[in-house]
Design goal:
With 134 residues, the chain is mostly helical. It has helices at residues 3-17, 25-34, 42-57, 59-69, 80-96, 101-115, 120-132. The protein is globular.
Length: 134
């Protein structure tokens, strides 16, 4: 599985979990992986979960970064898809650092093109560009 595909899976799982209480997250993860059409190896699952759980562990700090640089917006008012894409990307930028900054931003923009509105890619690119250079 490519890193792009892993990010897509992480986004989908984070998005689902955003609608649930914390005590439902374990079961949601299990169901998510069980329902995948293509098999996911244990290594791929571990990578996806590391991104999801890392994002959740640092959620307060990640939201502070987003709120600081998304002028006129905050995570409570943003489209849920957009905020989930931003959270995942900020986690990668600030805590994971397994990929180059340009790759992380580009992947987030590509996810926005696929899953969000026409305006989202530019918005996400702008916010992440500011965060990356801070």
């Amino acid at each position: 599985m490519s890193r792009r595909s892993a990010r897509k899976h992480a986004l989908e799982l984070l998005f689902q979990m955003g609608f649930l209480e914390a005590q439902e997250h374990i079961q949601t993860k299990e169901v998510f992986f069980a329902q995948q059409e293509e098999p996911i190896t244990e290594e791929e699952k571990a990578y996806i979960l590391s991104m999801v759980e890392g994002t959740q562990q640092h959620l307060e700090e990640i939201d502070a970064w987003i709120n600081r640089f998304a002028k006129g917006w905050d995570t409570q008012r943003m489209n849920r898809v957009d905020v989930t894409i931003l959270r995942l990307a900020v986690y990668e930028l600030k805590y994971s650092q397994e990929a180059p900054v340009g790759v992380i931003i580009n992947e987030a923009v590509e996810l926005a093109k696929k899953f969000s509105s026409d305006e989202a890619p530019a918005f996400i690119n702008g916010v992440l560009g500011k965060i990356a250079s801070a």
